[in-house]
Amino acid sequence: MKNIKLALIYDFDKTLSPKDMQEFHYIQSLGYEDPAKVWEECGVFSHKHNCDGILSYMYLMMAKNPELTQKQLLEEGRYVKLYKGVQAHTSQADWTPPTVPALFTEVAKPGEIPVWKQPTGAQDAYNKGDKVWYPDVNTTV
Questions:
Q1: What's the predicted TM-score (pTM) here?
Q2: Residues 13, 89: contact at Cβ < 8 Å?
Q3: pLDDT, tens digit, for every residue of 62-96?
Q4: Which of 31, 45, 103, 110 has the lowest CB atom count within 10 Å?
Q5: CA proximity to 122, closest of 100, 108, 105
Q6: DSSP-derived 3-state class of residue 124
Q7: DSSP 54-92
């Protein structure tokens, strides 16, 4: 029997990303317009089978895309917006990137030159040597 390695990465408290990572593109790639419909299906499945909601989600996503590959996962990762925590915090579960932006800095993907954004403080100030681009009136972001 062949051993299969599997890695599951899940940001349960949304401290790495402003929303569930699969809501950036993966759910829509399965034909859903509204991610809320997926969570509703998972809730029904979980209740019907008396099982954990997260495991229900994982089961349903694999059932809808049984041929999911590493290549697809890497491609989906390109759509996800990630943040690094500027300072540690555990006192407030609802201190997420959109709620308390001073605690987080958006992370550019490898090889990506992000669009310039006005810094709001030390947490997102640019460092000497950082590369950004500033779109003009003829450029779309």
A1: 0.61
A2: no
A3: 899 888 888 888 888 888 888 776 666 666 767 77
A4: 110
A5: 105
A6: helix
A7: HHHHHHHHHHH-TT--HHHHHHHHTT--EEEESS---S-
